[in-house]
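<amino_acid_chain>
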Amino acid sequence: MKAEIITIGDELLIGQTVNTNAAWMGAELSRIGFNVTRSTTIPDKREDILKLLSEVTGKVEVVLITGGLGPTSDDITKQTLCEFFDTTLITNQEVLGMIELMVQRRNQQLNENNRRQADVPASCRVLYNATGTAPGMWFEKEGTVFISMPGVPLEMKYIMTEHVLPDLKKRFSSNIIIHKNLMTYGTFEAKLAEMLSGFEARLPSHIKLAYLPSLGVIKLRLTGTGRNHAQLSRDMEIQVRKLYKEIPQYIYGEDEVSIE
């Protein structure tokens, strides 16, 4: 199962805001068995958004989108989504009621900007947001699920946790993914790759090897994908033992992350 991540915002491109959303969403998608094939950051420009949405349609199962859902004039994501999905904005009364209650609790007056947050594309499924005024939105087109969420990390994480991840788990049959990391020291990436070329060639198709170098240390990451956790764990352990036999002089430690 493939997924892409799109983060929208000029502030991300100029370095004013660190894009923590993409990293968090990528980890969560991987955790439920998705292969995140690309993460793209684009400006708040209608043409760029439409071009990228058209590009990914039908090529992946899921596209997560954050940003551009605020009430100001430069927040154009909702209007652009309406254009892409050939629909119009309507006022969602339930969202409006939640916004009114939230504003009252903050001892503030409801203004036009607040009201506009309740306007959503008519064809979307609304994902209610208890942490802010902008709801999430779920669309489908040509076999691809598009989910648009606010760029505020707290709000995005709430919508992901409460709505998106549970719904994706129900809709898509998730694989089990296990990562096993072996830490090496005392050689170079090119040399390791040369020594392990035969090992890589003999790996079963459901297990992959990646080289992750950093400051004198090279992490060897084995990634296994399967349906049965016990069987996959056994398969991974077999390959780990083989790696130890191939380069015992360079491995100094390991760590494991099991993802379901």
Residues 256-260 have pLDDT under 50 and may be disordered. Residues 176-259 form a domain with the Alpha-Beta Plaits fold (CATH 3.30.70.2860). Residues 153-171 form the longest helix (19 residues).
